[in-house]
Amino acid sequence: MDFSVSEEQKMLLDTTSTLMSRHADPAEIGKWDLDRQYPEELYAKWAEAGLIQFPFPEEYGGLGGDAADVALLVEELSKSSADLCMPYSSAIFCGFNILRNGREAQKRRWLPPLLSGEIKMLIGISEPGAGSDATAMSTFASRTEGGYLLNGQKLWVTGAGLKDAYLCLYAKTDKTVSHRDGVSMFLIDARAPGVTLRKLDMLGRRCSGTYEIFFEDAFVPEDQLIGGEGHGWQCLMSGLQYERAVSAASSCGGAQGVVDLIAAYAMERQQFGQPIGTFQAISHRIADMQTRVDAARMLMLRASWLSSRGEDALREISEAKLFASETYVHVAGEGVQLMGAYGLSREYAMERHFRDARSATIAAGTSETLRNLIAGLMGLKQLR
């Protein structure tokens, strides 16, 4: 098992780091967060640099990377802002669902514009009554001439208001059968007639934006049904491990960004005639933060390595996502405490990390859901 970074990966990370330092410095990110506006020009720079294309096969315009490459890339992007990385992660997740489940004509139609940055794709799963229990979704797609009519509501959709956004939407198409057979996956323009977006006022991740979406007889052409009618659950499950591995990488990146920020601050901030980083009470807490981030990163690298080999890594990915997300929350809280009132000020990125981290233990599988899943994989749950 070799977790060393290859020369190609080093070049990828150097390119990503340079791009972010040039086009997304902390002051700009803070302004985007304050204005609650996503930097479309930054996303275009990612596409121009090949970051979106990287993990996809060359035959569809990709660069042939794997899950380990994506994990490192997402980690690097998230050091600056896990919020900014969300639309990137969604594009990869949705693109791979099309790659795995779409017909050849659908792959040829949708993947090139996604990889070039011409369009974006966001995930629409949760509903007011269907969060961790996705089987309880009630949004319904009824057959009509040439396609389907969507009626219902989705909630907590990240980035739905971005320019040229398409929703990778899951809806019931048959209420008489189990969720495994009665859910289908659709692609629909987020600004199609019958689709209404409402941006929600959330604690964190304000650049990407979180949306509530209403569907009232919104028409979806039949060729925008992915995987066939009744196969949406299989589509969703086929990408779940990948989504959680990417989520773990994002939390690792955000957490490392926190540690880097507090370490630099501790060597600059003077109290009692010396940098606070020289005080054992401070330095030991920062050392514990770094150790915890490194442990989360090792879990993430193991999971992404297994995934890149095509192995079933559900338990390893669940453990990585659980620990990395809780680590991000923990170190962000520690960072605020160690910076004192400065940690709550917009002059520093710490307060933004503190807000953004809170959703890490909720999105892509709550900590409670993941613990339940891990326990089951350990054989600790009994059938009822």
Automatic annotation (TrEMBL):
Its cofactor is FAD. It comes from the Bacteria. Residues 124-217 form the Acyl-CoA oxidase/dehydrogenase middle domain. The keyword Oxidoreductase applies. It holds the Pfam family Acyl-CoA_dh_M. GO terms for molecular function: acyl-CoA dehydrogenase activity; flavin adenine dinucleotide binding. SUPFAM superfamilies: Acyl-CoA dehydrogenase C-terminal domain-like, Acyl-CoA dehydrogenase NM domain-like. Residues 230-375 form the Acyl-CoA dehydrogenase/oxidase C-terminal domain. InterPro entries: Acyl-CoA_DH_CS (IPR006089), Acyl-CoA_Oxase/DH_mid-dom (IPR006091), Acyl-CoA_Oxase/DH_mid-dom_sf (IPR046373), AcylCo_DH-like_C (IPR036250), AcylCo_DH/oxidase_C (IPR009075), AcylCoA_DH/ox_N (IPR013786), AcylCoA_DH/ox_N_sf (IPR037069), AcylCoA_DH/oxidase_NM_dom_sf (IPR009100). Keywords: FAD, Flavoprotein, Oxidoreductase. Residues 6-118 form the Acyl-CoA dehydrogenase/oxidase N-terminal domain. Signal peptide: none annotated. Belongs to the acyl-CoA dehydrogenase family. This is Acyl-CoA dehydrogenase. It comes from Antarcticimicrobium luteum.
